[in-house]
Fold these 4 entries.
Entry 1:
Amino acid sequence: MRPVPEAPRTGRLTAAVACLVLGVGLIGGAAVGAWLLRDPDGTPPRTAYTEAGTLWHSTPVDTLFPRTLAGDGAGPGGADRVWTRVAVAPDASCAAVLQPRLAATLAPADCRRVLRATYTDATSSSVTTVGMVFLGTAPADMAALRTRFTTGGLGGSPDLIPPALAAPGTVAARFGNAQRGSWHVNVLTEMPVVVYGVSGFADGRAVPQPQPAAQAMAKGQTTAPAQAGLGHEARGIADRIEKGLRTTVARAVEGPERKGNR
C-alpha cells in the first residue's frame, strides 16, 4: 500500500480554522433553531409528550370515553358494531388498578394514572373494559416498551391481561377478571400512553383460557372467545378510544393560539 503523504502544516492550520468556524456556526444555528421552535411567549414547544400527561385530569370524560362508539366494519367478517358506555371509573394509580405483574412491567416507565370505562355491544351479550395508562417516560423508553410487548411477547402473556371493570346495576355487573375472554394492548410511541381493551361475556360465564385479540381474530379459530367475536370487541373499542386520544392530544399540541391564527 502506498503511504499517504502528510499534509503541510499550513494546510492543517487552515483546516483547523475552517472546522472552528463551522462548529461555531452549527452551534449558533442549533440555538436559533431551538429559539424558533419556542412559542411566542418563550415557553418550550408543545409536544405529545408534554401535553398527554395532563389529559387524565383536564379533559372531559365524554371526550376520552364517548357515550357511544361506532364500529363500522369492526366485527367478525367486517360486520358493523355499535358500543354503548355503561360505566366510567375514577382515575387511579397503576398499583391500585393493574394486575401486579402488569403494574411491575410498567413501573420502570413511571406509570402514573389509569383511566377506565366499560362498554357493551348492541345485543348486550358482551362487555369490554377499555383503559388508558399514562406514563412519564421518554420516547426511547416507549419504543423499547413497545418492542417488549410486540416482538418480546408480553402482549400475549396471560399474566399481563388488563383488569376488568364491573358496573353494578348494568349488563357489566358480573364482568370480573374470571370472565375476561380476550384482550388487546397497544403501547404508543408518539406519546407516553398505553391503551388496552379486555372483553368478556355479559352473562358472567368464566373463560378458563383467555385468548389475545390477534389470535382470536385469526381465521379458523374455534375457541369460545373467537366464536363470540371477543377479540374484535377488545381490539375494536381500544382502537377507537386510541384514535380519539390522538385527536385530543393533537389539538392540545396545536394550542388555542395557533388555532385562532388560522
Entry 2:
Amino acid sequence: MTRVIHTGDTHIGYQQYHVPERRQDFLDAFRRVVRDAIEDDVAAVVHAGDLFHDRRPTLSDIMGTLSVLEELADADVPFLAVVGNHEAKRDAQWLDLYESLGLATRLDAEPTVVGDTAFYGLDFVPRSQREDLAYDFAAHDADHAALVTHGLFQPFDYGDWDAEDILDQSPVAFDAMLLGDNHDPGKQQLDETWVTYCGSTERASASEREDRGYNIVTFDGETRITRRGIDTREFVFVDVELGPEEGVERVRRRVGEHDVEDAVVIVGIDGDGDPIAPASVEEYALDAGALVARVTDHRKLATDERETSVSFADPDDAVAERVRELGLSGAAQDIDETVRASKVADANVADTVQNRVQELVAEDPDALTAVGPVDESAGDEVTNDEPTKPGGTTAEADGGQTTADDAAESGETIDDAEDQSSMGEFL
C-alpha cells in the first residue's frame, strides 16, 4: 500500500490584496500540509504545480519554502513535484534548486517509485506545444502508477486538454492522474483511471468560497481518494440584496452581523436601492477589525450596461480585466508583465522589451498574434497581482468575477538577468 498527500497550487509569494499578511498566509497553508504529512506518516507529498505564485519569487519566499521542505526532509517524507504555469521559467526551475539540495524530486518521464507506486511527472505544457508532445514514459515494475501534471483537463467542464488523449498515448497504464491548476477539488474516472484535482491550499480569489484543503490518495489494489480540509484565514462573504431606497446603511448593518476580526471581508451587492460608494463600506469593515475588505456592486449602472466588477480600491483588477478582454497571446502577456508588473527597473524597461520582442519573433513570427478573448468559463485565472478561476486558480476577482491568467501559456516565459543571478547565488 502507498498513501500520499496530493496537493498543489500553493502560490507561495502571492501578496493578495497587496497585504503582507496574505503573503504569509500562503506559506503557512503549505506548512500545515507538510506538518499533516509528517503527523500522518504518509509515504510522500506529491505537489501538482504552482508551488510559487510567480517565476520571480522573493528571497523570503524562497527561504520560507526551504524551511518547510527541510521539515519534510527531516521526517524522511519525500517531496515529489512538477512545475506549474505560474512559476515556469525557460531553463532552470526553482524546483531544481530544492532538488539539488536533496529536498525535492522533480518528476519526469522516468518513474520515481515510492512504496509500490511509480510516480511520473509532466510539467505544464502550453497549448502550442501539446501536439508535438512525446509521451515517452519509461517502464516500471511497481504495482501502481500515477501521473502528476498541471493544466485544465477534460473530462472536467473547464478543460482545454483531454486527459484521455494522454492516457491513450502513454505506454504506461496509470491508475491516477494527480492534477493541479484548477483551484477547486474534483475527481472523475476514465475507464480504470482516476483523474483528480486537489484544489488550492489558500483562497487565491474571492470566487473560491469552499474550504481549502488537499487530497489523500491511497494505492492498494485499487485507488482511493479522500479529502481533508485545512484551517486558513477566515473569509467572510456578505451578500446583500438591496430593496428600493435602501443604501449604504443597510449594507453596513449586514456587515456588522458578522465577526470580521482579522478576516477578509467580501461584500457583494445586488438588487435595487441607492448607489453605494464601495470605499465607505470597506472603511466600516476595516474599523471593525477586518484585515481586508472588498466591495463589488453587481447592479447595472444607468449609463453603462457593463457590470461593475471591482471597487475603486482595486485598480489593478480593472487593468487585469482589460488585459483579459484583449485576448493577448502568451508572448504578448509576457511583454505586458514586463512593462507593468515585473521587477525590471523603470529605466531598463524599454531596452528589456525591445530585446524580448526580438527574441520572441525570432523563435516564432506569430508569437505576438492575439489569441482572442479568454473564455471566462475555463482557464487558470490567476493574474500577476490578483489570482482566480471558475473553479479555481486565479487572480483577484472580487465578488467572484473571473479574471485572466497572468501566465496563460506562461510556460513560454524566459529567465531574465535577475532570475539567473538569483539562481546562481543559491547554487
Entry 3:
Amino acid sequence: MSFGSFENGSNTQPMAEINTTPLVDVMLVLLVIFIITAPLFHQAVPIDLPQVNASKLDDKPRVISVAIDGSGKVYLDGSLMDKAGMSAHFSQLTTQNQQPELHLRADRTTRYDKVTEVLAEAQKAGIVKIAFVTEPAR
C-alpha cells in the first residue's frame, strides 16, 4: 500500500521515492558508537623492554640448485654430480644448515625416473622444501 496526496482527483500512482531519513539516522548512530569505542581498542600494557646489542639472525635458507639435462646428467650448483656424490652433498648441507631449499630445474625431455631419483635422495637427506623451477608460458 502506498501513500499519495489527499486530493480526490489526483494521480493514484504509488510514490516512487525512497525515504532516506531513517537510513541517515542509523548511520549517524553507528558513527557515534564507533567514534566512542575506537580508543578502547588501543589499550596496551606499558612495558619497559631491555635494550641489548645483538647480531641479526640470517633467516634466508641455503638454496641448492639442481639441474637435470635431457640426457639425465645431474648438476648440483653448476657442477656435474653422480648419485653417490649427490647424496653426500645433500647430507652435508642438511647438517650445516637448518633447512635448505632445493630448486629443481629439469629439461623438458628428461626422463621421470631421473627426477624421482633426485627427489628420493633429497628426501633421504631430510630436505623437505623443494621447488620446481619452470619458464612462464608464452
Entry 4:
Amino acid sequence: MELSPASILTRLRDVRFVRYVLASVGALAVDVGSFLALLSIGTAAAPASAAGYSLGIVAHWLMSSRAVFQDKVAGRGAARTQQKALFVISALIGLALTTAIVGAGDWGGMDPRLAKAGAIMVSFFVTWLIRSRIVFRGEEG
C-alpha cells in the first residue's frame, strides 16, 4: 500500500464520502418519513416533499458539521455564519430540484414515491458537489 500524500488524501476523501453517504441516509430517513407521513394525511405531493426535505436539511447540517466535515467547519463568527448560509443555499438548491422533480412527476401522472426516488438521487449528487467543493472547502479552497 502506497503512503504518499496524494494516496492518503484520496483515502481520506473516500472515507469522507462514506460518512457523507451515511449522514445523507440519516437525513433521508427524516425527509422520507416526514414525506410519507404528510402524504398519508392528505397533503399534496409537492408541499409534502418540500416539508420533508426541509426537515432533512436540519438533520443533514447537524450530521455534516459534526461527523463528515468536522475538520472543515469554520470557527465562530462571520466565517461560520457564511458557511451556514452556503449550506442553506446548497440545501435550497436541493429543495428546488426535489420539489420540481416530484411536482413534475406527480403532474405527469407518476407515482410521487417514484418521483421522490429520482429526486433523491439528483439532489444527493448536486448537494455533495456543492458542499464538498464550496461549503466545506476549508482554507485551501
